[in-house]
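## Example pair
The file below holds two records. Each record gives the amino-acid sequence first, followed by its structure token line.
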Amino acid sequence: MDLIVDILSTPAILVGLFALIGLLLQKRAATEVVSGTLKTIMGFLIIGAGATVITGSLYFFGKMLEKGFDIDGVIPNNEAIVAMAQNAFGTETALIMLLGMIINILLARFTPFKYIFLTGHHIMFMACLLAVVLSTGGLDGAALIIIGSIILGLLMVLSPALLQPFVRRITGNDDIAIGHFGSFGYWVAGLVGKGAGNRAKSTEDIRVPRSLGFLRDTSVAISLTMLVMFFIVSIAAGPAYIENELSGGQNFIVFCLIQAITFAAGVYIVLAGVRLLLAEIIPAFKGVADKVVPHAKPALDVPVVFPFAPNAVIIGFIFSFLGGIISMFLLPLFGLKVIVPGLVPHFFCGATAGVFGNATGGRRGAMLGAFVNGILISFLPALLLPVLGDLGFEGTTFGDTDFAIVGIFLGYLMKLFM
């Protein structure tokens, strides 16, 4: 069972398997099958390597922020709560994952929702949430697994379907979809952009004076933006704290400079991985689409949209984070616990919301859409906290919008049967 969970929850292996099946169904030469499969896995691993570099840089930024502004509260962390729940619901989670994926393929084969959800770790997180929440209504054994699998399978086709009109606008084609359980936030960002922005004024058309022509290079622009942000929080945290606790004695200015450029290097790596992945997975997936699920589309993790609007990525991150900061002060006014803005979810979800907002509303759409996403990933996890607290998981919560919505809805629904 552990082997199945490890395979199904490792996106690189999962996507590689689908690429392998697709290439075999097309009866490609052995060299093409081996090359296409390995490059697909490699593309996903490169994305993961870039994400690790970004996360490492943001870890130091977060520490400076907490120290400089004396921030205290709950930090949403999907991995933490899943690790806690696995001890009690490990078997149920694995079976819901496996059956949920089979139901996903069946729904894609026999309904108009032609999406194969390939973001393995999010499938595992959702399966875990379903196992925990459904158990509170008295469900166990086969009933819990079957109902959880059906809900998961439905979410795996409905979530990409919700976003696909926006994805077509972002990519200019219908070849890929988004498989990520932050979809409600991206959908709202797209709507906000559509209602409040102007699509003609794209973030990618921002005019830069000739003297500042170096800013047209995305990597340089991200480095300078992050450098400004690092310097602001470093001054608030104090040079002594940085040099004694974070940098190992390195001067705080040098440390901030290196971390800012490290962050930009991580984004560069992610974009390189996305380009490699898309070049391999789309032709390979044609075999699955032709033979098993006609017209099927791979629903992939959110970084696949980053190359289509690199400026919107950094704008989305900044405005989502701003929404998180403002929410931090508003939450106590509603009697809710403070949610500390997690820089990793605000980067990946905020950047994606920025791309969606830009696709429908240009610069204003990217800013407002990402800002609203920042508020959503602050308030929704706070509203989920009491539900999880009742289940014995006090002090931690999921960070992405869909987990919160599903958890809150099913949590209160199950109480009716208790």
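Second record, same layout:
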Amino acid sequence: MSAEIQQLWVYLSTTPLLWLTLTLISYQIGTWVFGKLGCHPLLNPVLTAIIGLVVLLKVTGIDYQTYFRGAQFVHFLLGPATVALAIPLYRELEMIRKSFGPIIITLAVGSLAAIVSAVGIAWALGGEKIILLSVAPKSITTPIAMGVSEQIGGLPSLTAVVVVLTGITGAVGGDFILNWLKIYDDNARGMALGVASHGIGTAHAIQRSRVAGAFSALAMALNGLFTALLLPVIVYWMQ
């Protein structure tokens, strides 16, 4: 019986559908656990799904390339999902229009702070130039970050890893920091999560409220633009 199960597993592990299905199931389990245990930030569904999949790959000995061949459809959907964030933006358009000036100032400062802090920490830890360039766009959404990293001379694959870690860190730790700072306004919390932790932070903000999600989506989108404009100037200044 065990030999039959092993043969079945060997067959299924080579089919792309298996890994796509397991990815969706892992996220669904993470969402269920998150809701059942009081929506604690440490139980962020993205984090628990990643941990579950890493454990599964380690136990089964499946390499990442095999997994990604199956799960790449989820990667493809990142683009449409990002565009879909325009919906909460549209619903709160009037409120955003009234706060447009403070929003732009906040974004400019937040974008610059994200770049300088990432590069500064990497430099203080002895990182080489290519590492500094790879971590600089850590706070913008993955597709834009990888493109920016490639253009300025960084490593897009390293950038993708840092971007995901930044998003998870923001979604998990953002609420603790904002509560500690006594910032309870949904507009401000949404802006902070969108600037600091892009799409993953925005998904977390949407779980809090529609307003927080709208401001986070706006911050994520404009932070990508600000960073893409600021980074080439900073890189030129560094040379």
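Notes on the second record: The radius of gyration is 19 Å. The chain has a mean pLDDT of 83.
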